Amino acid sequence: MALLAFFCGVVAFIKPYSIHSVMSGFMLWTVLSTSLCKYLTVIFYRNEISEIIQFLPKYCNNDQKYVKMFIKFHHFFFGFLYFLLISSILTVIQHLLHHRYDFSLVIWFPFDAKQPMIYPFVLAWEMLANWTCYMANALVDFLFYEIIFITSIEFLILKKDFRELKVKKLKKEVKTITKKIDAPSTSYPNLLSKLPPKMSEKEEKKIIITKKVLQKLIERHQKLLETRKLINKIVQLPFSLTFFMISVVLCSIVFRMTIEYSYLLQLIIGLIINIIKISMQCTFGQMIIDSSNELVDGIYDCGWEEFEDIQMKQLILMAMMRMREPEKFETYGNFEISIEEFGKIMEATYSYFTLCRNVFN
Predict the structure, then answer these.
(1) What region, left, alpha or beta, does residue 325 occupy, with left being phi > 0 and alpha being psi -120 to 50 degrees?
(2) What's the rounded Cα separation, in Å, for the pair 318 and 103?
(3) What is the CA angle 209-211-216, rounded to 5?
(4) Cα gap 320→243, rounded to integer Å
(5) Residue 356 vs residues 73, 132, 259, 337: alpha-carbon distances, Å
(6) CB of 260 within 8 A of CB of 267?
(7) pTM of the model
(8) Is the sign of the CA dihedral 222, 223, 228, 232 positive or negative?
(9) H/E stretch holding 150
(10) Sorting pLDDT into bands at 50, 70 and 90, what band is 104?
């Protein structure tokens, strides 16, 4: 069905009847081309995606706070899918209320689709094709966003684990001080006189255990950075294409809203859907930037300055050097995916709209 709609959209674009035909065919073509690109990306990187999915939820599932965040993300995304379904139904209702034999998309058919007996079936097919196209696009986006969301949570969990190194150390120091305070005053000189010049076996074991924990955290940190780079490699092409396509589609929608009032409801729905899509992409990109910045603070707050072992300090220093710049996702052309970039896309869309408006006038 999607391929048939793609073919019809291309034909409508090649043989335009009006500016509505051109822009409608272009919008259909952009949705289907981005969906096809995303599906091919998933097929090509299926082994890497499977490896990422097996690695990421390993620590996330143990914390109820982050599990609740994950559930909220699911609720929001499925709410967006329901909105897509409702919007498809609303476009059909719009045509029925106006009592006109027309379609939301200008698609070429090898027969007269506006015949009274055929029109309802073609309209239902168009709604289903519309829904299928948007669902195909949204479901792949859901996979990408879920991986990015869990990656950002893993950064936050790692930050928490680094900070717990200092918390555990402080708790042990408090217990030691409390024991000394509770002891009789006469025992203080004896305690001081019996202190060994070298480290005790218990203290050595504690340092060895702490070093092993720190090494595991460093390994997790390194694996997480490699995972982030792999995710960026997977989503770079689809996100780059989405950035470009949506900026052009938003421009065409706003432009059509100024010249075609009969399709206003359809255009408003399309505008909302595309703004939500690009804002979600930028929001999840921003989550990686923010969580990686918080991880740097967590590594610094692990109490490294109090470590007596030089090797442990070197491990912390290496981890901090790897995080000199926040982790981020980038499109082709080195454009970072962030909230700031969302503002730039809106500015570019307005510039394209102004240019189209001046040319049209």
Answers:
(1) beta
(2) 61
(3) 95
(4) 32
(5) 37, 31, 12, 26
(6) yes
(7) 0.75
(8) positive
(9) helix 119-182
(10) low
Kindly list the distances between the CA atom of residue 173 and the CA atoms of 64, 122, 169, 178, 349, in Å, as whole numbers in the listed order.
29, 76, 6, 9, 59
* Band of pLDDT at residue 133, cut at 50, 70 and 90: confident
Write out the two tokens for 11: 């034909």
Token duo for residue 224: 């997480």
Give the span between the Cα atoms of 273 and 159, in whole angstroms.
35
Tell me the CA distances in angstroms from 94 to 26, 27, 58, 207, 349, one per residue in order.
Answer: 22, 19, 48, 71, 27
Would you say 210 and 165 are in contact if contact means Cβ atoms under 8 Å apart? yes
Distance CA 300, CA 291 (A): 14
Q: Tell me the two tokens of residue 310.
A: 């030089």
DSSP three-state, residue 224: helix
Contact 162, 299 (CB under 8 A): yes
Asked if residues 151 and 288 have their Cβ atoms less than 8 Å apart, the reply is yes
Residue 205 has pLDDT above 70, yes or no: no
SS3 for 260? coil
Dihedral of alpha carbons 312, 315, 319, 324, sign: positive
Lowest mean pLDDT segment, chosen from 15-29, 80-94, 164-178, 265-279: 164-178
Mean pLDDT for 85-100 is 70
Candidates 135, 136, 133, 109; CA nearest to 121 is 109
Asked if residue 88 lies in contact with residue 3, where contact means CB atoms within 8 angstroms, the answer is no
Q: Which of 55, 299, 51, 279 is nearest to 154 (CA)?
A: 55
d(CA 87, CA 272): 10
Question: d(Cα 170, Cα 331) in Å, to the nearest integer?
Answer: 44
